[in-house]
What we know:
Blueprint: E1 8-10, H1 48-53, H2 58-80, H3 92-121, H4 132-141, E2 153-156, E3 161-164, H5 186-203, H6 206-213, H7 220-238, H8 244-266, H9 273-296, E4 300-319, H10 322-333, H11 343-356, H12 360-364, H13 382-386, E5 388-406, H14 411-442, H15 452-504, H16 513-532, H17 537-563
Antiparallel strand pairs: 1-4, 2-3, 4-5
Helix pairs in contact: 2-7, 2-15, 3-5, 3-8, 5-7, 7-8, 7-14, 8-9, 9-14, 10-11, 14-15, 16-17
Amino acid sequence: MSGAGPELYPGELPSWAVFKFPPDSAPAALPPPVADHYSFRNPIPIPENVYNAVLHPYVPLTIAATYAVSISTLNWWNRKHGNKPWKISKTRAFHAFVIFHNVLLAVYSAVTCWAMVRSLKHSIPHYTDRNAVVGTVDALCKIHGPRGLGDAVTYDGQTNTWGSKNAQIRVSPAGLPESTDVGRIWNEGLAWWGWVFYLSKFYEVLDTAIIIMKGKRSSTLQTYHHAGAMLSMWSGIRYMSPPIWMFALVNSGIHAMMYTYYTVAALKIRVPNRIKRTLTTMQITQFLVGVAFAACHLFVSYTVPVSVPYNVAEKVLSKVNASSIASAASSATSSAVVAPASGVAIAFLKKMIYRAAGDEGLAENVYQPGESSPVSYADSNANQAQSPIHNTVNRVVYRTEYQHVPCIDTSGQAFAIYLNLIYLAPLTVLFVRFFIKSYIKRTSPNARKPSSHEVISKSTRDAIRGVDRQVESFGKSAEDGVSSAIMNGASALRGRAAAARSNGDARHGSLSPENKKYLESFQGRIVEELERAGEGEQETKQRAKKLARDVVGTAESANGKTTA
């Protein structure tokens, strides 16, 4: 596509080629460039094998699933035991760790937020630059290569190669974007700080562990947020999806404020409740902003300037006064100055003469000595002097065209976006639902007529509270399901154990096997004693049977009273 300048095309439907599941594994995530000196954008070198090993999909999936199930189980356990604080939570060491943990995350989150701001500052063109709007979109969509509209290095899924629209931009010998490229978000800090921010999501689960050990219930919204953040950051960094910088920037900024609040609270300093409500509002707001911003990338395209070469063949038609030119050439070449000159020098002089005569086409077609020439310049025939001369000149002409490019290039980048949409969509739907209900209630005919600003503000607060209540009800239902599964599993284990005992040692009437053996031995001793007393065999048997019946009857009666 060509035009007078770069243009932006919002609202265009994305290509179905990017909606592929599972997404293409190529390209692999590019580790941050290794510099020979300290750089804030890449403070510590990260080996490539380590960088990509922790981006294996099983890592976040396993940790997120284990975390969600563990917290549901521990919430149920705390509720079963009256939400009493654990003993460890009353120690000084625990209190010191809580303060250290919150200070560490507050400082780290603030530094990460600044690193993201810095990377944007070095990537986005100044607002006074020509084509600043399209240039900003290009900077946010294409995160590899050098800075400049149309200079990005992108991955082509059809050819499985990296390349640039600008023919002057080269890739490395390995076929990857040059690590020395600057001016794009990835090399300007996202590759390093985004990867570390992804790892920090695993460490942040200690927030929930601290709450659990204090005997409190971890909110379902917090559990959902932590588990979802692991997967969102993983997909964004693994597939180098453009909007992931937004998640790192906004989330780290909110966390800097949130952990500062936690630190102050841990130091027993009273903090107004409205600050806590404000932080909750900001967390849900980031979900809404994040889902809208990420989705936009799928529906944006624009044009970039591309210098396209064209081969142009031109025919030169001219009438040349050959005799005058030959005369000039003869006088020039007969000069004592150029008499010993070589054929190369003579050819050069001929070029100058033709140019002086105003015939550039002929000048460019003067042949060097040793080459066959289609024109005999020694021929001064008068007829030739008046004949037209046809010459074809081949030239390469570069023309700037504006070619259409989508914001998203690979199926992996698209996968990271719609995974974030799946993660954030339930919260967004709940928020919109509660907001509409609250807004309609406040604007009904019977309601007092407040200002529109007041209506929106209160409806937003009601929607946030509604989202919190709804998510908590979902969470408690899940915990009840976990507790039921645990209890059913324990009952099943006890049932199998009882069945095993029953199959191994069957009872005889109301007597246990041990009591039966005892009675049998007791009966044998009675028989022996009667035989010593000299009774006959027949009398002995009858007496023994009677005594045995009496003893057994007494034992059964006693056993019945005991079990009752």
